[in-house]
């Protein structure tokens, strides 16, 4: 189950060298994750409002492979790897065409308003259960 989300690089995304500032890749993959969850039918605002918790990033292992520059059209790919209880693990990649620029393994946890782990939303678990994890592309 791989989701794709387009991202355009704007001037504000770049550093003094004219390349994408490294922390902005984390913003790009956050957008990709949000759209992946939305595509599965999970409304994160409603989830929070009804006591279903929120997603928090627990861990990111990132690898920067090549730079992106102003006006590049990038693709953020989000791929489900596994889940258990309150934890969800995803692989995310940022590409320009076929060239891999950045990739990360992201561990999310679902937490309550008190900051305690709570089970992942049933809707999310049901949707990811329909699609087993995929091998790397």
Automatic annotation (TrEMBL):
Pfam (any one): 4HBT_2
Keyword Flavoprotein in annotation: no
UniProt keyword terms in alphabetical order: Hydrolase
Enzyme class: hydrolase
GO molecular function: fatty acyl-CoA hydrolase activity
Enzyme Commission number(s) of this protein: 3.1.2.-
InterPro entries membership: 4-hydroxybenzoyl-CoA_TE (IPR050563), HotDog_dom_sf (IPR029069), Tol-Pal_acyl-CoA_thioesterase (IPR014166), YbgC/YbaW (IPR006684)
PANTHER family: 4-HYDROXYBENZOYL-COA THIOESTERASE FAMILY MEMBER, ACYL-COA THIOESTER HYDROLASE YBGC
Family, per entry: Belongs to the 4-hydroxybenzoyl-CoA thioesterase family.
Protein name from the UniProt record: Acyl-CoA thioester hydrolase YbgC
């Amino acid at each position: 189950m791989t989701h794709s989300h387009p991202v355009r690089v704007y001037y504000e995304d770049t550093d003094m060298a004219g390349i994408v500032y490294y922390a902005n890749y984390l913003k790009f993959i956050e957008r990709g994750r949000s759209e992946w969850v939305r595509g599965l039918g999970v409304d994160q605002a409603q989830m929070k409002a009804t006591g279903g918790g929120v997603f928090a990033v627990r861990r990111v292992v990132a690898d920067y492979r090549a730079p992106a520059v102003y006006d590049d059209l990038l693709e953020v790919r989000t791929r489900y790897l596994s889940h258990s209880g309150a934890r969800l693990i995803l692989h995310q990649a940022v590409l320009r065409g076929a060239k891999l620029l950045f990739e990360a393994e992201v561990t999310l946890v679902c937490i309550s308003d008190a900051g305690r782990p709570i089970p992942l939303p049933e809707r999310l678990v049901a949707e990811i259960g329909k699609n087993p994890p995929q091998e790397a592309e």
